[in-house]
Amino acid sequence: MPDFASPRTTCRRGDAGHDAGIAESPRAAARPSRRAQTAVLHISGLTRRLRPAVESALCLCVPSPSVLSPHPGEDIWDTRWFTRWQRDTTGSLRCRELLSGSEEELTDLAEVLGALAREHGFSARVERVGEYVEA
Q: What is the DSSP string of 37-94?
């Protein structure tokens, strides 16, 4: 189990602000796929201290470009490029985000976040909701 308290890994999507000590996913050297799964990420009860670890897991486990990104001609300002965190009544953080990635990437994300959640006492779930096939 990686040490989530010490920074040692940087998000591979170029966001160096998300160092959180997450070992690289076993399948992180993902190849671009013409097929993508869509999923909803549910997190609740997260402490602010662990937020960078979760965001790093998102970057490291799901390195392929999102099929939810804007396509040519679409307005870039209509696309969400970040995780929208909210505070719940206890002061902890929660989010519910739509994601896309390969089956392997989403499985990796579910495993990494599941282990992190069990170790630190918050709830994390990656719920598969469909498949996207590029034309």
A: EEEEEEEEEE-GGGHHHHHHHHHHH--SPPTTSPPTTS-GGGS--S---EE-TTS-EE
Sheet holding 123-133, edge to edge: 86-87, 93-101, 35-46, 123-133
Number of structural domains found in the chain: 1
Model pTM? 0.69
Residue 76 in any domain: the answer is no
Residue-wise pLDDT tens digits, 55-88? 999 999 998 877 776 666 666 555 555 678 999 9
**Domain that includes residue 46, residue range:** 1-26+37-69+81-135
